[in-house]
Design a protein that fits this description.
two-stranded antiparallel ribbon
C-alpha cells in the first residue's frame, strides 16, 4: 500500500511538509499465537486466607528491603544537598525526617492501597477526627505527617550510581521492576484465554 499525500512525489520531504494521512485496514496482519506448554495458574499452593500473604509472594521482603534502602539513601542525599545549599529552613518538615524501615514501608503501601478502597475528597480526610468522616485505622497505623513525608523520598534505585550515558527511561524503577517480573514468573504460569479477542489492526498511511 502507498500513502495518500497532498504533495507531489518529486517534492523533497521536510519537517514543514503537510501530508494528509488516512487509515486503512491491515489485511496482511496475522496475530502471534504464543505457545503455552505449562499448566496455567499459581505454581505454589498458599493455604492462607490473608490477602497480604498472597501479595507478599510477589512483593516480598527482598523488594521491600531494596525500597527501604534506596529511600533512606535518597533522603540522605537530599538532606545533604539542602544543608549544603542552605535550602533547609528552620521550620521545614524535612528536619523531622528519620530513616524508614521495611515494616514502615509495608504500612505505607498498605495505606496507599486502602485509599483506593476508601474514597475521600482529600488526603487529610483520612486522618480527620470528625466523627462523620473519621477513619481511625489510618491514624492507628501511621501519623499523617509521616505518611505525607515518605513520598518525598520514596526511591527504588540509587541516582548517584546511574551511568552518565544511561538512556534507560525505566532506570529509576528498573531494579525493582526486574525483581517483580522474576516473582511473577516464579509464582504464576500464564495461560491462553478460552475466548480469544483480537483487535483489528490498522496501518497509518
Amino acid at each position: 500500500m502507498q500513502a495518500e499525500s497532498s504533495s507531489d512525489d518529486d517534492d523533497p520531504p521536510g519537517p514543514q511538509q503537510n501530508r494528509q494521512s488516512t487509515w486503512s485496514p491491515a489485511s496482511n496482519w496475522v496475530p502471534h499465537n504464543l505457545a503455552f506448554t505449562q499448566r496455567p495458574g499459581p505454581t505454589h499452593r498458599v493455604t492462607s486466607d490473608v490477602p497480604a500473604d498472597y501479595f507478599e509472594l510477589f512483593f516480598d521482603s527482598e523488594i521491600v528491603a531494596t525500597i527501604c534502602e534506596e529511600t533512606n539513601r535518597y533522603a540522605d542525599q537530599q538532606m545533604d544537598a539542602l544543608r549544603r545549599d542552605g535550602g533547609l529552613s528552620r521550620h521545614s518538615r524535612f528536619r523531622r525526617w528519620k530513616p524508614t524501615t521495611p515494616t514502615e514501608i509495608k504500612k505505607f503501601f498498605g495505606l496507599l492501597f486502602l485509599t483506593g478502597l476508601v474514597r475521600k475528597s482529600d488526603l487529610d480526610s483520612y486522618w480527620s477526627t470528625d466523627e462523620l468522616i473519621a477513619t481511625p485505622y489510618f491514624s492507628r497505623i501511621m501519623p499523617r505527617n509521616r505518611f505525607e513525608i515518605l513520598p518525598s523520598f520514596l526511591h527504588f534505585s540509587d541516582n548517584a550510581a546511574r551511568p552518565s550515558d544511561c538512556s534507560d527511561r525505566l532506570y529509576k524503577v528498573r531494579h525493582v521492576f526486574e525483581k517483580l517480573c522474576g516473582r511473577f514468573r516464579e509464582h504464576f504460569n500464564p495461560g491462553m484465554p478460552s475466548n480469544r479477542c483480537y483487535y483489528q489492526m490498522y496501518n497509518l498511511l
